[in-house]
Design a protein that fits this description.
The protein has about 325 residues and is an alpha/beta fold. The protein has 12 helices and 13 strands.
Length: about 325
């Protein structure tokens, strides 16, 4: 069997591309072939067999028409824009094999378009071109029922697999040293984009350090705000307490989550974040904004509430005096 997946391909690292890579790994273990078409720009392109990086919509359509797949599996998350809808239409029109759509956007049901979902709409007609819809939570599944898709063609599958950090993977010395020097050592994992509300975290560190002078914040990821975030950090008198790492391999990120005192997830728009699930599995406390779909065990704060974030970090520090020992 030949499966063609379409979605973001790292770097930068993200929840959707981790899901794509995990699916490819499992397919290849089972003796199947898996090709990938990157639908967003990778920050670094390394030639790999069966991995395609089209430079235009025309190139993407040519790939869809030429790759002889048994299953076409499109992944998308975030806001479902007109560009995303056009991609979905192209997959149904030009792609080969059974068409599967995985919707990772946990926040989509709360958007204007998600609330207005109905059968007799352009979105409904496009989405009904897929043979199967995979939703990462029941709320998304309900939206696609309103788009006119039969419930038996919709499957709720949570997009994460629990894994311990690989003891053969080592943390770069500068990252390991940063965690060792700070307590609490807090970690943020995600894209450097507006919806992650990272400037709020940077500003909140002033209040955190007033209570916890040895605290530190590590921000893992890359994105369009990288230069602005670097400048914001550099302007702070406590700039040595915040480390912007850039992209970090997933194997290393798991170790960072395991060895940190807390994972922060302060988003303006978010779904069921894989990093949150990984942290809970590794028993690392999570402080996250309330998006009405966080898993049990997460400490919730209101959206864009720096005071609540600082308060919860303080409470966490009082109840968690020592770090976990690293695995292995």
């Amino acid at each position: 069997m030949h499966v063609l997946q379409l979605g973001p391909y790292p770097p930068p690292e993200g929840g959707i591309n981790r899901n794509i890579l995990a699916l490819r790994e499992e397919l290849e273990k089972a003796g199947h072939r898996c090709s990938i078409i990157a639908t967003s720009r990778s920050t670094r392109i390394t030639p790999e067999p069966d991995v395609h990086h089209p430079g235009s919509a025309l190139e993407l359509i040519k790939l869809l028409r030429s790759i002889d797949s048994d299953v076409l599996h499109l992944h998308f998350g975030g806001d479902i824009t007109r560009r995303v809808l056009a991609l979905a239409w192209a997959c149904c029109t030009f792609g080969r094999g059974m068409k599967v759509l995985s919707v990772h956007s946990g926040g989509y049901p709360s958007t204007k378009e998600g609330k207005a979902a109905k059968r007799n709409s352009l979105r409904g007609r496009i989405f009904r071109g897929f043979d199967r819809i995979i939703a990462v939570n029941p709320t998304i599944a309900e939206v696609f029922v309103r788009y006119g898709i039969s419930p038996e063609h919709i499957h709720v599958i949570y997009p994460f697999v629990h894994r311990f950090p690989d003891p053969k993977v080592s943390i770069p010395a500068n990252l390991k040293e940063f965690i060792a020097k700070h307590q609490p050592a807090m970690l943020t994992v995600g894209l450097l984009e507006p919806e992650y509300d990272l400037f709020m975290q940077i500003d909140a560190m002033e209040m955190v350090l007033g209570q916890l002078p040895n605290a530190g914040l590590m921000i893992v990821g890359s994105g369009s705000l990288e230069a602005e975030l670097k400048a914001a950090i550099e302007a702070k008198p406590y700039k040595d307490r915040i480390l912007l790492t850039g992209d970090v391999e997933h194997g290393v990120t798991l170790h960072l989550i395991n060895e940190s005192d807390a994972l922060l997830r302060t988003t303006l728009f978010d779904g069921d974040a894989i990093s949150v699930r990984e942290a809970l599995f590794l028993e690392t406390p999570v402080i996250a904004t309330d998006n009405e779909m966080r898993p049990k065990g997460v400490t919730l704060i209101p959206v864009h509430d720096a005071g609540a974030l600082v308060d919860q970090i303080g409470l966490l520090s009082q109840s968690r005096k020592t770090k976990k020992k690293p695995l292995g």
